[in-house]
Amino acid sequence: MDYSFVNFLALLGSVCLFLYGMKIMSEGLQKSAGKRLRSILAWMTKNRFLAVVTGVVITALIQSSSASVSMVVSFVNAGLMPLEQSLAVSFGAALGTTFTEWIIAIFGFKVKLSAFLLPLLAFAVPMLFIKKSNLRNVGELLIGFVFLFMGLDAISANVPDLSKSPEIFASLQQYTSMGFISILFFTLVGWVVTMVIQSSAATFAIVLIMASKGWISFDIACAMVLGASIGTSITPLLASLGGNGEAKKAALGHALFNLFGAVWVLIIFQPFVSMVTWIMKDLFGMGDPLALYNTLNSGASIDENTLKTLTGPMAIGMTMFHTIFKFCNLLIMIWFTKLYVKLLDKLIKGKKKDEEFQLKYIQGGLMSASELNIAQAEREIVVFAQRVERMLGMVKELVHTKTGTPEFNKLFSRIEKYEDISDRMEFEIGSYLNKVLDGKLSSQAKKRVSGLLSIISELESIADSSNNIAKALVRKEEADAHFNEYNYKNIDEMLKLVSEAMTNMLTVLIDIDNTTPEDLMRNYNKEREINNFRNACRTENIENVNQHKYPYKAGIFYMDIVCETEKLGDFIVNVIDSVEDIMRSNASPSNPLDIGELNPEKTAKPVI
Hints:
Blueprint: H1 5-44, H2 48-62, H3 65-77, H4 83-96, H5 98-107, H6 114-127, H7 133-158, H8 167-170, H9 180-197, H10 200-212, H11 218-231, H12 234-240, H13 245-267, H14 269-283, H15 291-296, H16 304-333, H17 337-347, H18 370-399, H19 406-438, H20 443-478, H21 485-510, H22 517-546, H23 552-586
């Protein structure tokens, strides 16, 4: 085999073309359908059986279970798909990968897409010059699709041709006569080969070449195919390394699915192979998959036509074995997805150090698709808001904790730590969103990012105000001021109203795209309620001090806390204003979002 350095560079260039095509296609897909992607995914994975079908279809279309499961891992990492549904999709992907093997078994390598790629490019490129942005995005998607498959075609042309140098695997023939040890050995070989080349379909082609030479029997070929099904797990595992705990669980779940399946098939391996042979030979009359090996090793000479005739049943038998194995494994494992989740939770312990700075959804590494990156940021913002809500709960508890006690000091330190965490979260999420803006985004997505940047700023302000209330309580003690029951009652009422507003705000942030005008009005009404109560407290405070119901010094700290609490309501409603802006940017010209001006104070807030 002649394979020069130039051939290697051509192979490297082919891989680069493939990766560039994948990047362009991904960006085009995100820009054309990004904002609808989450609702589509939610519908496709609303139950585990539909999720299985999704996995089968996607893998059959892209002809790579590794790619489809890696995509699922990225969705889990972004918080777009729950772990249980992701496992069901990966189970379906394992079955869908047999579609490629059926193509190889029936047609060989005769199916080529190259004849359709250049004509498709002729349609796609002119779309880039159309004014309508959605059509430009579709054109970009198609160009990426063309480059991707051009890259695949070029990789196939520049990879060393194993069919012309099968002697690489000829040395394995000496290990075929050790009984069940041979089965285990060749299962391991199939596993390792697939891990290296990261394609079970390519391993299947290699096994088919070895079998057509008479080097391995049908059961040995099936063992290699079984090992290849485990080897496909390596790509999702690698993809999950930079992800969060849920992403690692999704990748490990796919690996365990394949591993557990291989274990139970190995236990009943010979009966299972015999069943596949019976189905092939007696049930469907598709030929004997054992005939090729027996004929080649009988010493009889056969012509090329006979060889092709005997190779067909062998290839179909291997595919039948893999398909039946995957289907049976799916029927068994699909009922245990909840147990899988529990097992994965035990194997991969999630970080529960909520008082340590950490990002849950945003991870380092390459930012593959800007629209999905926005979804990751939105999930992280929800985590940010939940932390701020817990901080407010600590403030409510601190109000009724005796100052100077260890309990007060411990709680005050926690509040200060949460405030520090909020500063770092604002910085990290904001920096991440600025990087997203550097990517290729639709105009709607850019407006969405601007709204999200405003939201994190307001959330950090909520944390600052909560910390200010805690500091006011410390200053009150240092000044030897004391509240009476009336002061505490009104402070509790203010904090109660703000907590309700915070809960309403979180409900909106968790599902921005499905927010209704009624949800926004609920928040605006709560803000007005907070303002009215603050005004009432201010008026009564002057009267109470004049009537000596409590000292003037206590009244100062009392109103400091009440007014600071009212600021919390202002920051919360500012978050809602940003959500309203996002909702308006999402509205299409054909279906405008007619929600009017829900917050009359939005453009002109009174200065307090």
